[in-house]
Specification:
The protein is of the alpha+beta class. It folds into 2 domains: 153 residues, Cell Division Protein Zipa, Chain: A (2-Layer Sandwich); 146 residues, Cell Division Protein Zipa, Chain: A. The chain contains 8 helices and 16 strands. It has a 6-stranded antiparallel β-sheet, with helices on one face. Strands 11-12-13-15-9-16 form a 6-stranded antiparallel β-sheet, with helices on one face. Helix 6 runs antiparallel to helix 7.
Length: 400
């Protein structure tokens, strides 16, 4: 080996070592910057997000459609005695901020420095049995018990809770001991309030920052009104939220049956209107058609595949495709309703002279519809076993 070759080898080794050292220094600098930006507020315990659920992942699956004709494909995803902590007289610094634009997230501003005489009330996890009709399985329930029955400014509390980024229900205990919903300004004296922060919705599971903001807001409110706050263990709530969210992802499916027009002959919107009306669907304010039950709940809808809404009165208006939409977890008696959806889809395709296809353009047959129905039966059985029947009160809160 010549001297020139040895020099080249040495130069290459030094170059590789320099690149590795440079990358290590860059990574160390970035980590320091991330730690600086995302350091938890002083005095707030950091609660790590349970795995495998990502902390800020948005769960919205409203447009999953079935490959109805592929025998190898699955149309649906695989279905396989305590003391309440008293609040001190001095109110703690406010920590509630406007939620970021992404759904399901809440931020906290930097807390101002508190003086030694202005101590933050201790947020100790206190387990208790809720007395109201709030749902412990799907909500994180906290309690505020007043020192004596009081007319609390409910509107201000509701506004604080609105900023959390997840639905919050409030129940008030009257002086006679009965509980009732608190949804706005009230002149009724309450001995206690119970607040339920929803653990899961279609934007995902509740985040640790949202739980912190929820409890801090309640402590701030109690400090002003006078009372004792009980907040259960937040980490246990995050675990429940992650498990519940994972289950909801499995069953949160929207069935779409597409009817497409021949290339040379698009559907007249006036004909779509006639056929939809004959099937019992009514035109909605948003330009779609829908079938509602006696309670006014949408069972399924008919949407234009183009961006514009249906315009039945527009002379000569056409469309190249329409889609029947069926929201699996929110419809009661889902199997019966799906049978009606399939029947209407077949009838519309025949009346309009179109083809009934899945999202991949494959023809939908009676056999493929039967496979979808079987998967739906499994999904509904799973929801029932979990205590979340489709179209029930729990489902309507979770899948929004």
């Amino acid at each position: 080996m010549t001297t020139f070759q040895l020099v080249l080898i040495g130069f290459g080794a030094v170059l590789v070592l320099g690149v590795v050292l440079y990358n290590w220094m860059q990574e160390r600098r970035y980590r320091q910057e991330v730690n600086r930006l995302f350091t938890p507020l002083e005095g707030v315990a950091a609660i790590e997000r349970p795995t495998p659920i990502e902390p800020e992942t948005e769960r919205i699956e409203p447009h999953i459609q079935f490959d109805a004709a592929d025998d190898q494909a699955d149309p649906l995803p695989a279905f396989e005695s305590h003391d309440e902590g008293a609040v001190q007289d001095e109110p703690p610094p406010a920590v509630i901020a406007e939620a970021r634009s992404e759904p399901g997230l809440a931020t906290e501003p930097e807390a101002p420095h508190a003086s030694p005489t202005q101590a933050m009330p201790a947020q100790v996890a206190v387990e208790f049995e809720p007395e109201s009709t709030l749902d412990r399985e799907t909500e994180y329930i906290a309690r505020l018990r007043f020192s004596q029955p009081a007319i609390a400014p409910a509107a201000a509390l509701i506004e604080l809770m609105r900023r959390i980024g997840k639905p919050v229900r409030i129940m008030g205990q009257r002086e006679d001991g009965e509980w009732e919903p608190v949804a706005g300004p009230s002149r009724i004296s309450y001995a206690a309030l119970e607040l339920g922060l929803q653990l899961v919705d279609r934007s995902g599971a509740v985040a640790s920052g949202q739980l912190e903001a929820f409890c801090r807001a309640l402590y701030n409110f109690a400090a002003e009104q006078g009372g004792a706050v009980s907040c259960p263990d937040k980490y246990a709530a995050l675990e429940r939220a992650a498990a519940l969210d994972s289950f909801c992802i499995e069953v949160d499916v929207l069935i779409g049956l597409n009817i497409v027009a021949p290339d040379a002959r698009p559907f007249l919107m006036s004909e779509v209107h006639r056929c939809a009306s004959e099937a019992g669907l009514a035109l909605q304010a948003d330009g779609t058609y829908a079938l509602r039950n006696e309670a006014g709940r949408v069972l399924y809808a008919l949407a234009n595949q183009a961006a514009e809404p249906f315009q039945p009165n527009a002379v000569g208006a056409t469309t190249h495709g329409i889609t029947l939409l069926f929201d699996v977890p929110t419809v009661p008696e889902g199997l019966t309703v799906f049978g009606h959806v399939a029947e209407v889809a077949m009838r519309l395709s025949k009346s309009l002279g179109g083809r009934l296809v899945d999202d991949n353009g494959k023809l939908v047959t009676q056999e493929s519809l039967q496979k979808i129905r079987q998967r739906l039966a499994e999904a509904y059985a799973s929801m029932g076993a979990r205590g979340i029947p489709a179209g029930g009160e729990r489902a309507n809160r979770l899948f929004v």
